[in-house]
Write a structure and sequence with these properties.
Number of helices: 7
Radius of gyration: 16 Å
CATH superfamily: Alpha/Beta hydrolase fold, catalytic domain
Number of domains: 1
Mean pLDDT: 97
Shape: globular
Strand content: 15-25%
Low-confidence stretches: none
Distance between the termini: 29 Å
Strand order of the largest sheet: 1-2-4-3-5-6
Helix content: 25-40%
CATH architecture: 3-Layer(aba) Sandwich
Length: 228
């Protein structure tokens, strides 16, 4: 499998899954995982952005606390993923954001174009933070970012355009908090879907094909607008 090794600013090396289009990339997309690691679903997401013409790369966001994580979507996987997420969140700053920055820098160098970021679930939160904390991003698209609608997160000031996807029936992200986020961030394009948390993932019971397709169309149009 096409895993590469990236190096963060602190010298730490870590793996990332990368795919490149046949011709010159139209830009690059950093894909940030759910709490289940760079598993087969996230790799398929990377491949999907490559098919749309982008160099795409998914850094292993758990690597600082446990290498080689690849979980499924059963209850035991959920518990394991939540514990790993908590361990990463507890790292001293900048923590995993240093690895995401390394992925952005790599994507910019090797695509020769602008870089966007997309993240799912926990990765949505990390993408939202990256939009305000990191350099080199031209667009950010969080999908149902767990925690990004809390009061502490919704006051961030993104440094690039942001498109956010949320689910109306998300038991992890209350609809009222999404509405508060939209009010606090009038420049963020917020879209709601008649689906549950995780609707983009075709390996989960929450998968909702019409919502996933519409969100992908909107995301690709957003990237086409901002990444060129």
């Amino acid at each position: 499998m096409p895993f590469i090794t990236l190096t963060a600013a602190d010298g730490r090396t870590f793996p990332a899954y990368e795919a490149r289009p046949a011709g010159q990339p139209r830009g690059a997309v950093v894909v940030v995982q759910e709490i289940f690691g760079v598993n087969s679903h996230i790799r398929s997401v990377v491949d999907g952005y490559t098919q749309a013409g982008y160099l795409a790369v998914a850094p292993a966001a758990f690597d600082r606390v446990q290498p080689g994580v690849e979980l499924g979507y059963a209850e035991a996987d959920m518990v394991a993923g939540q514990a790993l997420k908590a361990a990463v969140e507890a790292l001293p700053a900048p923590g995993v954001q240093a690895d995401i920055q390394a992925a952005i820098d790599h994507a910019a160098r090797h695509s020769g174009g602008k870089v966007g970021i997309v993240g799912y679930c926990w990765g949505g939160l990390l993408a939202w933070r990256a939009a305000s904390l990191l350099s080199g991003l031209s667009a950010a698209v969080p999908y149902y970012g767990g925690g990004m609608t809390t009061e502490a997160e919704r006051v961030r000031q993104p440094r690039c355009p942001v498109l956010a996807h949320f689910a109306e029936q998300d038991k992890w992200i209350p609809l009222e908090s999404v509405q508060a986020f939209a009010q606090a961030q009038p420049d963020v394009a917020v879209h709601l879907y008649g689906a549950h948390h995780g609707f983009n993932c075709d390996q989960r019971g929450a998968w909702h094909a019409p919502s996933a397709q519409l969100a992908r169309e909107r995301t690709l149009a957003f990237f086409a607008q901002h990444l060129g």
